[in-house]
Design brief:
The chain is mainly α. The protein has a domain of 122 residues. The protein has 33 helices and no strands. The longest helix is centred in the middle third of the chain and has 24 residues. The N terminus and C terminus are likely disordered.
C-alpha cells in the first residue's frame, strides 16, 4: 500500500509541480491586498524601504510568521536587500514567493541574495515571475546562475505558461525556451506534462492558439521517446483539464475558482490582477471546444506509433465531425447566455467527458498510469466526481486502488467524491488500507475539512472504530498541526466532556432566564416549544447541518446533555436510551420539543450547506 501511495504521489507531483506553491502565492497575493488596504506596520515598513522601522518593529516583540512572510514579499518586490535579510533572520520563511516577486520586478541582486542564503529556494519561481513580466535581462541572469534542475524547472514553467499569454508574449517565451534548451534543459517529457496540466490549458486561446501550438508541437516532437503509458496519461489529463475549464465556462462566473486548487498560473500577465477580472478574461476567450480539439489534434498527429488508429479521425480539428464521433448532442443555448457574454454554441463540459469515454472504451487507453494521472489531475482541479463516475461507467476505476483515490479526494477536500467513493467501496471495508488512506490525508497540509468530513461519514462503518481512529491520528507525528488541534478539540473523549459541561451550563442559564428573568417579555409565559427553541434551536441546527451520520464528540456531548435534561423524569426515554442514541435519534428527540416552523429553517440551511460542501 505504501509503495502504491508513493507511486500515486509521484504521478501527481509530476503534473502539478508548481501548484505546490499555490498557498505561498496566495500569501503573496494577500500581501499585495494588505499593502493596498490596511496592512500591518512591518509590512508597510518593508514596502516603504524603511530599514530602521523594520528593525524597531522586529525588536519590539513577537510578529506572526504570516506577517513576516508578507513583509518578505514586499521587500523582495521592491529590491530591499538588507530588509529582506533582517526579515529572514527574524523567522520569515516564504522565500519562494520572494523569488517570484524578485523575478517579476527584475531585481537580480535579490535573487542572488536568496540563492546564497543557505536556505532551500525554488529558482523556478524566479523564472515564473520573470516570464510573467517578460523580463529578458532577468531571464538571462537566471539561466547563468541556475543549475541543471533549475534549467529544467524553467523549461517546465515556460511550457506551462504558453496557454495564458498573448501572441507577442508567446514569441518571447519561445525564445526563452530555446535559450533554456541551449543551456542544457532537455526534459521535454516533463515540460509536455506541465503544458498539458490543468492550470495551463485554462486561459486565452482562440485565434492565438495557432502561435502557441507551434511551441506545443515542438514539445511533443522533442519528447519523441514517450512510452505508450505516458502518452495515454497526457491524453486523459488533457481531458480532465478541459473538463475543469468548461465547467467554469458553464458556471459563467468565478465561483469555482474559490473551491479548486488553482496554482500560480492564474495570475495572467499582471500577477496581482484581482481574481474576478482574471476570470472575465478567461470567460471572454474563444470557444473552449475548438481549443480542446486543436490541442488533441497536435497530440494525435505526433503520436502515430502510440495511439489507436481511430484517433486519427480527430486530427483535422473539425468540430462537427468530432461531435458525431463522440456522440455529443448539439446545444440550443449559448454559452453563458444568462450573462450575455458568449456567442459560440457548444455543449461545454460534455465534450471532455465524451472524449475521455472515447479514449477509454474505443482506443484502449486504460493503463494504470493513465488512469491514476487522470484521477490525480481531477482531484487537484476540483472535478473529481464526474471523472470517477465516468471511470465507474467504463469499468476502469478498478484498475487503480480505490483507497489511494480516497486519500487524494480526502486530502483535497473533494467531499462529493469522498461520499461517492465510500458508497462504492465494497463493504465491509478493508480496515488496513482505509486507515492508510486516512493517515495519508491527515498528513497533507491542505486543510482539515476533508478528514473531518470523512469522520462525519463514519468511514469505518463503526462509530466506535471511527472515533478510535480519530484519537490515534491526532497523536501521529505526521498529522498536520491544524488537524491535530481540531481532532483534539472536537473528536476526543475530552472534547465530549467539554461538550457535556457546556450543555449543563447552558441548561442552567436557560433555567435562570425562565425562572428569574425580569424582562417584560417573560420567557416562562411563552409556550414550551418556544422556550425550547430559544434555548436549543442553534444547537439543533448545528448538529442537523453536520454531514453524515456521526457527530463530533463535542457536538454529541452537548446534544446528549440537552436531550437528557429535556427528558428528565420521562418514563418513555431513559438516560441510558439517550446515551446510546445515534445522531438521528438524538435529533428526533430534541426536535420533538421544537415548533414545526423550526424544521423548515433547518431544511433550508441544510440545502445551503450541501451546496457549500459540494463546492469545497
Amino acid at each position: 500500500m505504501a509503495s502504491r501511495r508513493d507511486h500515486m504521489e509521484g504521478i501527481h507531483a509530476a503534473g502539478t509541480h508548481l501548484s505546490k506553491c499555490r498557498l505561498k502565492f496566495a500569501a503573496a497575493q494577500a500581501a499585495y491586498g494588505t499593502f493596498m488596504g490596511q496592512q500591518s506596520a512591518v509590512v508597510e515598513a518593508a514596502a516603504q524601504g524603511s530599514r530602521r522601522d523594520v528593525s524597531r518593529l522586529l525588536e519590539s516583540g513577537f510578529i506572526p510568521t504570516q506577517e513576516l512572510n508578507y513583509a518578505i514579499f514586499q521587500a523582495a518586490k521592491r529590491g530591499h536587500k538588507y530588509i529582506l535579510q533582517e526579515l529572514m533572520e527574524a523567522g520569515g520563511t516564504d522565500l519562494d514567493a520572494a523569488m517570484e516577486a524578485a523575478g517579476w520586478s527584475g531585481h537580480t541582486h535579490i535573487v542572488d541574495e536568496l540563492m546564497v542564503s543557505g536556505r532551500s529556494v525554488n529558482i523556478g519561481r524566479a523564472f515564473l515571475g520573470a516570464m510573467l513580466a517578460c523580463r529578458r535581462e532577468m531571464i538571462d541572469h537566471l539561466i547563468k546562475v541556475a543549475d541543471a534542475e533549475g534549467l529544467e524547472s524553467g523549461l517546465r514553467v515556460g511550457a506551462s505558461l504558453i496557454w495564458s499569454r498573448t501572441a507577442d508574449e508567446v514569441g518571447f517565451l519561445s525564445d526563452v525556451l530555446e535559450d533554456l534548451v541551449k543551456a542544457g534543459a532537455k526534459n521535454f517529457a516533463d515540460a509536455l506534462l506541465s503544458s498539458c496540466n490543468g492550470t495551463a490549458i485554462l486561459h486565452l486561446n482562440g485565434r492565438r492558439i495557432l502561435h502557441k501550438s507551434k511551441i506545443f508541437d515542438r514539445l511533443v516532437l522533442e519528447a519523441s521517446n514517450l512510452t505508450r503509458d505516458f502518452y495515454n496519461s497526457l491524453l486523459l489529463q488533457t481531458c480532465v483539464c478541459f473538463l475543469y475549464r468548461m465547467t467554469i465556462l458553464e458556471a459563467g462566473d468565478a465561483a469555482l475558482l474559490d473551491h479548486c486548487d488553482v496554482s500560480v498560473f492564474v495570475c495572467e500577465s499582471v500577477p496581482f490582477l484581482p481574481k474576478v477580472k482574471r476570470m472575465q478574461h478567461i470567460l471572454e476567450s474563444a470557444t473552449a471546444t475548438q481549443d480542446m480539439l486543436d490541442i488533441f489534434s497536435i497530440l494525435f498527429r505526433n503520436g502515430e506509433s502510440l495511439i489507436s488508429e481511430r484517433l486519427f479521425q480527430f486530427t483535422d480539428g473539425n468540430v462537427e465531425k468530432a461531435r458525431t464521433l463522440l456522440q455529443v448532442k448539439g446545444s440550443n443555448c449559448q454559452v453563458g447566455q444568462k450573462r450575455g457574454r458568449f456567442s459560440s454554441l457548444e455543449s461545454r463540459a460534455e465534450w471532455p467527458l465524451k472524449m475521455m469515454k472515447f479514449l477509454l472504451t474505443q482506443c484502449g487507453v486504460t493503463s494504470e498510469l493513465a488512469i491514476e494521472q487522470a484521477v490525480a489531475s481531477s482531484t487537484h482541479l476540483g472535478v473529481m466526481l464526474p471523472v470517477l463516475e465516468l471511470l465507474v461507467e467504463c469499468n476502469c476505476l478498478s484498475i487503480t486502488d480505490p483507497y489511494v483515490v480516497l486519500a487524494f479526494a480526502t486530502a483535497f477536500r473533494q467531499t462529493a467524491a469522498v461520499k461517492y467513493l465510500l458508497d462504492i467501496i465494497p463493504k465491509p471495508v478493508n480496515i488496513r488500507p482505509m486507515m492508510e488512506a486516512f493517515k495519508t490525508a491527515a498528513s497533507e497540509n491542505i486543510g482539515p475539512e476533508g478528514v473531518l468530513y470523512l469522520l462525519h461519514l463514519n468511514f469505518l462503518d463503526d462509530p466506535k472504530a471511527t472515533l478510535r481512529a480519530a484519537t490515534m491520528v491526532a497523536e501521529l507525528e505526521h498529522t498536520t498541526p491544524e488537524l491535530r488541534d481540531r481532532l483534539r478539540e472536537e473528536w476526543s473523549q475530552e472534547a465530549y466532556n467539554v461538550g457535556a459541561e457546556e450543555g449543563s451550563r447552558h441548561y442552567l442559564n436557560i433555567m435562570r432566564i425562565i425562572k428569574r428573568g425580569q424582562s417584560r417579555l417573560c420567557v416562562r409565559e411563552l409556550p414550551l416549544q418556544l422556550q425550547v427553541a430559544i434555548g436549543y434551536l442553534p444547537l439543533y441546527k448545528d448538529c442537523y447541518r453536520t454531514p453524515g451520520s456521526l457527530l463530533s464528540q463535542r457536538q454529541r456531548g452537548e446534544l446528549v446533555e440537552a436531550v437528557r435534561h429535556l427528558y428528565r423524569g420521562s418514563s418513555t426515554v431513559t438516560e441510558v436510551d439517550v446515551h446510546k442514541a445515534d445522531k438521528t435519534k438524538l435529533l428526533a428527540l430534541l426536535g420533538a420539543f421544537l415548533p414545526e416552523w423550526s424544521q423548515s429553517f433547518t431544511d433550508v440551511d441544510s440545502r445551503k450547506d450541501e451546496i457549500t460542501i459540494a463546492h469545497s
